[in-house]
Amino acid sequence: MKLSRREALVLAIGSVAAAAIPMTAYAAVEEAIATFTGGAAVGDAGVTLTAPEIAENGNTVPVSVSAPGATSILIVAAGNPTPGVCQFNFGEAAGAQAASTRMRLATTQDVIAIAKMADGSFARASSEVKVTIGGCGG
Amino acid sequence: MISRREFLQASVAASAIVGVSGIGNWSRLAAQQRLTQDQLLQFDTFGNVTLVHITDIHAHLKPIWFREPDTNIGVGEVKGLPPHITGLDFIREFDLTEGSPEAYALTHSDFTALAKTYGRMGGMDRVATVVNAIRADRPEAILLDGGDTWHGSMTSLITKGQDVVDVMNRLGVEAMTSHWEWTFGTERVQEIVDGLPFPFLGQNIFDAEWDEPAFDPYTFFERGGVKIAVIGQAFPYMPIANPGWKFPEYSFGIRDGRMQEMVDEVRAEGAELVVVLSHNGFDVDRKMASRVTGIDVILTGHTHDAIPEPVLVGETILIASGSHGKFVSRVDLDVRDGRMMGFRHKLIPIFSDVIAPDPEMASLIDEGRAPYKDQLEEVIGKTESLLYRRGNFNGTWDDLICDAMLSERDAEIVMSPGVRWGASLLPGDDITREDIHSVTSMTYGECYRTEMTGEFLNVILEDVADNLFNPDPYYQQGGDMVRVGGMGFHIDVSQAMGSRISNMTLLKTGEPIDPARNYVVAGWASVNEGTEGPQIWDVVESHIRKIGTVKLEPNSSVKVTGV
């Protein structure tokens, strides 16, 4: 079987996120990423996403992205009712292609970062962030 | 050159306790005669650096009974690996002899009989004797405390940790990291830290507002001609597992990316030996060791595991030194040409009847207790059953606490936290107020009474189960399954979150839990601010006074599968 780039992308996202996400949200994630990439292939090297494994407070979860040489970075919270979090654009004079923000996460989910490089290629990183009710630590 | 694994084998053989065998049929006196302090301390000094590690004493300054777990399930890649082996499997894995002092110290097998033979364990006055002996042998030995030190007793609660701080300062600790320390609140932690004669390390403690490092990440030692870096790693899930509102200024997390940066930084500054003093928990440390390069030794903590051999992950050795003052680890290292060439390790069991108490430390401890002695030692009742907690599911102490809440708080269902601290009591023992505090003491012990739907009870069980049985250690918080009274359930530990719990049953009627119905629920140790209710130790004391003698039936309300 030979997959088109587009199909491969959809499968790759689906394999990590589909189980936990209703189809409407899943479609929204797909759409947000496709809008950003224009359907181009997405590699897996070149972008670093730093997020906590377990959120200390789901209402304000810190996340950092870094992608040397990127012109913009998209952050998507795959399990939120509205998955789009933000898009950072870097001008030519930017000293570093890195940024940090905080986001609200509705539930345990994957956070995805897609970087658009200067040469027009794309790179992706994702990280599962667990949102828990807590308590009972030993 | 000898490989690390061969070296380990040789050193374990060399450090094994000699001269004891048989299955618990000696009198205490005989055991004392055959097991000597010299044997426990025997160590062929090795290399040029000595680390001494103690962790998770939970403020237990006096000798105690402490039964190790009968159930410690490992999931995913760590299934069946230490520390996820117990009882006879543990005895076989480490080539111990059933009924031996080591088997008594390290497993639950035949606990009551062996306890009577070998006596209580721990006691910081005995630990002082061991530390002093190691320092006499290797004056430049570095003493490191892995945290969970200031919390866990009635005296530590009353003095806000001061009695333990005094003891650890006298012992000569040279660096520590933290977990339950934070439950005293930011102000008290800062007050104590300001007065500590050693650094309070945590590369993963950040200012919550600005997300910037808030405490020293590491400290250096020059010992035996070697430059040694000790990097601290506090418990990563502080604000989740414990009440974050008591220390809202700080954020934690594993932050293994920064750990790598710190390792690289200390190496660049000339560290020839890199030690991580960690409160991650064993499985988290095992994973971190596989992701961060350049760490020679991780002194693990949090999950209370006592493992008689170091566990190797790549070029890193992991040391697990138990809890409650039961053990002290001595690790001798040969560091040459900027790298660790070999090691020799011994997990020293603190048999309180064999190791002489250090007189100075003994009097310091007794001075700390003196103002509260009558309160501490007041007998509340008696137990006919062995009372213990440690294990993935309900222990007998938990059953007693749950019974107390069911009865005293008139609840249908009760929940008690799956913490791993608290000493054991033998059948026939008196239960003192101090004993109750050993398993309940905390700064948020209010026993709430509320209503919850069956559905929410399921959410809680699933959530806690995933904190324990998520196959990725980075998503585990340590601790054990929440203890439940008044309700039974089945748990398949091999399933994913949301699918592990089934057959929730109200024990009083035998009826299935109705997701839509409200149940009257009592519990304690809520992480929510503003929780109201009597303190849990008062609830338990009142219950024990009414029943007089504790006698518990075996608890079969939790059925575990998927192991």
Automatic annotation (TrEMBL), chain A:
All copies of domain Ig-like SoxY, residue ranges: 36-136
Name of this chain's protein: Thiosulfate oxidation carrier protein SoxY
Signal peptide: 1-27
Keyword Kinase set for record: no
Native source organism of the sequence: Szabonella alba
Membrane-crossing segments per the record: none
Keyword field contains Signal: yes
Keywords recorded for this protein, A-Z: Signal
Gene for this chain: soxY
From TrEMBL, chain B:
Record's keyword annotation contains Lyase: no
Gene Ontology CC: outer membrane-bounded periplasmic space
Domain 5'-Nucleotidase C-terminal stretches: 395-533
Organism: Szabonella alba
CDD domains found in the cross-reference section: MPP_SoxB_N
GO MF annotations, alphabetized: hydrolase activity; nucleotide binding
Protein's UniProt name: Thiosulfohydrolase SoxB
Alphabetized SUPFAM superfamilies for the sequence: 5'-nucleotidase (syn. UDP-sugar hydrolase), C-terminal domain, Metallo-dependent phosphatases
